[in-house]
What does this fold into?
Amino acid sequence: MCSDLRAICIELIKEANLNGCRKEIASKDCGLCIKTIERWEKNLIDLRNGPKTIPANKLSEFERKKIIKIATSEKYRDKSPWEIVPMLADSEGIFIGSESSFYRVLKKEKLLAHRGKK
It folds into this structure.
């Protein structure tokens, strides 16, 4: 949310408060938490910077490409990730990523639609 919209929300909540509405109720009507409004009143600019480090278990680009290659291969193209991961572990003894990692990569690449035979 940009600072202009934040300022408008704060003004609306202040106006409602002046007309007898409790600040907490007015902020809930705006779909916001009272703590958020209090933070915005101090500073309209979002000071959050996100994580400072890269997760140690983040998939590399090579692993992402390998997931895509395996999921689109002849053997696995009609299987879901919850079937692919155990099959890879049992038959080939390899682990590239978890089922949720497979789902996340396939979803990002728009390959998660119906995975049946064409």
Notes: The helical segments are 3-18, 23-29, 34-42, 61-71, 81-92, 99-108. The CA atoms of residues 4 and 44 lie 8 Å apart.
